[in-house]
Write a structure and sequence with these properties.
By secondary structure, this protein is an alpha/beta fold. It is built from five helices and five strands, in the order E-H-E-H-E-H-E-H-E-H. The chain is 31% helix and 17% strand. It has a five-stranded parallel beta sheet, with helices on both faces.
Length: 165
């Protein structure tokens, strides 16, 4: 099983990046195979001929499981992540199981992943069998913050916590 994280924070190696790593580790018992930190691509996301963006897109669409993470900006996911997702043709994520993950400073944004990010991912063909995951910034390094979500999500994911089918 190939596991990828996609992080749409304009700040490199952000809290959302750490949260995505923690989610993968908690779900599978191991680190992701590939990490796509969109901050590394920056303005290249606007260049449709960029080999780096093409490689990142290929990593994402060929994953078995992906955690797509974003901080909450203006009650939604970032424009950086939107630029990346706009490059993916409809249906292209049909073989990818995705966990949408939103990080925010305030719990009033708890539905941002469910309302904004998850519909875009499903429109692109991804299977999103769990509720979108929401983490407060202060919990991005606390695996116990995932326990409630995991209690309903684990049976719906293609792997168990220790990475066994």
């Amino acid at each position: 099983m190939r596991i990828v994280t996609v992080v749409g924070n304009p700040k490199p190696r952000s809290r959302a990046y750490a949260a995505a790593e923690m989610v993968v580790q908690t779900i599978t018992g191991r680190a992701p195979d590939e990490r796509i930190d969109l901050a590394d691509l920056g303005a290249e996301l606007l260049d449709w001929s960029s080999p780096a963006v093409a490689a990142a897109l290929e990593l994402f669409v060929s994953a078995d499981l992906a955690v797509v993470a974003s901080p909450t900006y203006k009650a939604s996911y970032t424009g950086l992540l939107k630029l990346f997702l706009d490059r993916i043709p409809g249906g292209k994520l049909s073989k990818v199981t995705v966990v949408p993950l939103m990080v925010a400073a305030d719990p009033k944004h708890a539905l941002a992943g469910e309302v904004h990010l998850k519909p875009v991912l499903t429109e692109l063909g991804a299977s999103c069998p769990t509720a979108a995951l929401f983490l407060l910034e202060s919990h991005c390094d606390q695996p116990e913050a995932l326990e409630h979500w995991l209690s309903t999500a684990r049976p719906r994911l293609p792997i168990t916590q220790k990475g066994r089918r």
